Amino acid sequence: MWYVSTRGMAPRVDFEGALFSGYAPDGGLYMPEELPQLDRETLRQWSVVSYPSLVKELCSLFIGPELIPRDDLNDLIDRAFSRFRHKEVVHLSRLRNGLNVLELWHGVTYAFKDLSLCCAARFLQYFLEKRKKHITVVVGTSGDTGSAAIESVQGAENVDLIVLLPKGRCTKIQELQMTTVLRENVHVFGVEGNSDELDEPIKAVPDSHPSDPETCQLSEAVTSQSVSDEAITQTMGRCWEENRYLLCPHSAVAVSYHYQQADRRQPRY
């Protein structure tokens, strides 16, 4: 499996190369050169497996056995999810009127990014131990990326983590999650600006250290502003009244859309 830049101006790399590159040299993001084709029987079989088992199957399509043998891959994923509070890792709650909520908050930091970063950190450390190398990871965050990244690598001997935390733009809980981790390999700095404004200096890190290829970047660049805070609050209240189920604000964004569609389908008299 090869990976190419979304801008099409960088050499293709394997999974290990994409993992350690962060942004591609041309400023794009790496994506698979080809997407695996799945038949109906495979999808049928996958429809009944656990979430960790599904992750193993999917990862095996994008990470060749010459890079991570299947037994090692399975072990890495099992260890990645070992700290999740729910035995299913990802749990589906079926509520009233066709409302289903996929719970992505059972990780250590209660953020959905625990799901991806716990695996990414295991893959990073696997290659680093194999190559006998050390890297510094630079993270720009508005809250949940930073805390999830910290939890995934804190205490690791072959990774130093630098987190750039926008002053006054994170919740108190998120700020405490990041600033109270007393590990020698975790370094958190408060900076001016928002998470989107942190992208540019993070992108410039490899250019400012061209002789140091062992610098990896993670950046939180996607946010949602399609639902107002008031609508989120109202959605959380409605879900509690109808189901006695407490939504997190992230889930409330999607459930708000569900309620809008459901209300439109109601007959008008």
Largest sheet: 4 strands, parallel
| Low-confidence segments | 219-225
Helix-strand string: EHEHHHEEHEHEHEHHEHH
Number of helices in the DSSP assignment: 11
Q: Based on helices, strands and strand pairing, what is the structural class?
A: alpha/beta
What is the 3D shape?
globular
List the helices and strands and how they pair.
Elements: E1 3-5, H1 15-21, E2 30-32, H2 40-46, H3 51-62, H4 70-80, E3 91-94, E4 100-103, H5 114-131, E5 135-140, H6 144-153, E6 159-166, H7 172-179, E7 186-191, H8 199-203, H9 205-208, E8 215-219, H10 229-243, H11 249-265
Parallel strand pairs: 5-6, 5-8, 6-7
Antiparallel strand pairs: 1-2, 3-4
Could you explain the architecture of this structure?
It is a single chain. The protein has helices at 15-21, 40-46, 51-62, 70-80, 114-131, 144-153, 172-179, 199-203, 205-208, 229-243, 249-265, and strands spanning 3-5, 30-32, 91-94, 100-103, 135-140, 159-166, 186-191, 215-219. It contains 11 helices and 8 strands. The relative contact order is 0.10. It has a domain at 134-223: 3-Layer(aba) Sandwich (Rossmann fold). With 269 residues, it is α/β, with parallel strands linked by helices. Strand 6 (159-166), helix 7 (172-179) and strand 7 (186-191) form a beta-alpha-beta unit. It has a 4-stranded parallel sheet with strand order 7-6-5-8. It starts with a strand and ends with a helix.
